[in-house]
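Risk register update: the risk of archive-format incompatibility is retired. Evidence:
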Amino acid sequence: MQFDNFMHPEILLINEIKRGSNIAFKKLFDEYYSLMCSLAFEYVNDYFTARTIAEDVMLTIWEKKENLHITCSLKQYLLKSTRNRSIDYLRQNNNSRNFLNIDDIDAAHTTCFLSEEDLFEQIISDELEIKIHDLINKMPEECRNVFVLSRYDGLQNQEIANRLNISINTVKYHIKNALSNLRIELQEYIAFLIIIHLVNK
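Archived output:
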């Protein structure tokens, strides 16, 4: 029997995350976020700060996913990152208490933290918003001005036409083109947000 093509599930998961898979990242998040919160709480003794530390570690992984290099187990990597971030927080606040070992934390500590689907959705939503702004900034000037006045300032087509001194048909043309391009460029994000809402119903 040949095992040359066999890859450990963690390696497959890491590779999928490096390729930008939202589903793989959500799996990582669901599996380890609560445990990371619990470890951080053992250091900082504050629920809000613990969640912030765990979230920062997760966000850093997603933001630097293309250069992600993990040579140990995912659990060990995430807990070590959380521990280091917690210690940095304590040092910045002149507090050196509770420099405990990672091995002292186990799944039994996760009961005070719930899975944060809303937070994961917010991560994707924040990235989506950044992507939208980037795409808007790349639009031709007149198209961009029309779209911003319509979608962000809430102006009616005739008001936009009057303000920019263009015809109402030109306004409609720019809005149609802008929305069409956004749908094409953002289809991966939109589809993923739809999936999240369906799963959470």
